[in-house]
Amino acid sequence: MYFIAGFGLLLMLLSSVMVASPQYWSDGIVKFSQKPYFHWFEVISRLVGGGFLISYHQVSLYPKLILGLGTLLIAVAFGLVIYGSEKHRNFAVWSAKKFRPVFRGAGVGAFIFGLFLVYVANPGF
């Protein structure tokens, strides 16, 4: 329950940055993609996050949704491994530049979804 709420709060925090400064968010993606640990950090964080969501999906208000989200994160992690580090890095840079104009709107949507996750994580809310 706490992990799901924490995941929602982290999503709200990061999406706030997207809303406040899409340029900063875009530049951050490009800069982070240049780090040697970028690819494996992305893979491992998705595996861990997906594993926790799957582990705790039953304590949420919508267990099938949380289970699906966890499964999706794990599938993306495996997809990134198959895709490869260099292609992943190139995609990150391309998408950071290409989708910069929509980051603010995407951030609003992600913030709302983060609020929803916090709500879903607290059955007594």
Report on this structure.
There is one protein chain. This protein has 125 residues and is an all-alpha fold. 83% of the residues lie in helices and 0% in strands. It is globular.
**Low-confidence stretches at least 5 residues in length (pLDDT < 50)?**
none
What is the approximate shape? globular
Tell me the radius of gyration.
15 Å
Strand content range: under 5%
Overall pLDDT confidence? 93
State the share of residues found in helices, binned by percent: over 70%
**What is the number of helical segments per DSSP (H or I, 4+ residues)?**
6
Number of DSSP strand runs: 0
Order of helices and strands: HHHHHH
SSE class: mainly alpha
Largest sheet: none
First-last Cα distance? 12 Å
* Quaternary structure classification: single chain
Short description:
83% of the residues lie in helices and 0% in strands. It has helices at residues 2-20, 22-33, 38-56, 63-83, 85-98, 103-121. The chain is globular and about 40 Å long.
Lay out the secondary structure.
Elements: H1 2-20, H2 22-33, H3 38-56, H4 63-83, H5 85-98, H6 103-121
Helix pairs in contact: 1-2, 1-6, 2-5, 3-4
Tags for this entry?
6 helices; 125 residues; single chain; 83% helix; mainly alpha
